[in-house]
Write a structure and sequence with these properties.
By secondary structure, the chain is of the alpha+beta class. It folds into two domains: about 55 residues, no CATH class; about 70 residues, no CATH class. The chain contains five helices and six strands, in the order αβαββααββαβ. The strands form two sheets. A three-stranded mixed beta sheet has the order 1-5-6, covered by helices on one side. The radius of gyration is 17 Å and the shape is globular. The chain starts with a helix and ends in a 14-residue tail after the last strand.
Amino acid sequence: MLYTYANGNVTGVRADQDEIVYFVTSIDKITDANLAFVFTDGHPIKEPRAFYDNLASLSEVDHELMKAIYWADTDDDNDRKRRRQAEFLVHRQVPLPLIRYLGVRTEEMKAWAQKTIDSNGVRIGSIVRPGWYYKDQEGHSS
């Protein structure tokens, strides 16, 4: 979805990746809090698909592909793109105390995010992770 967004293909939305903030947690925090979750082995609306609610099934997720920088389908494997879009979904909400940190694209956004979080009495750190984003229209490195 971020790729589509970064290329200006989300109708009615200005494509500015700098405004995307990742709220980062961990599976351990979710399970320790006894929150209901499911995860998929790929894009949740494309066939084939599977939903799991047992961590013993995490091996169904292609972990090596999740680490890949490039994950387009190939002649040898025309299911890479679907598998790379696997999701871990938490029912209803993730409470703020379970957030480990915020991930942002730029130092400017880090300052804004940290100020916003701090002004609301929440203690969550922020990190700059440009590699989590795509290059912009002008080809600037992300």
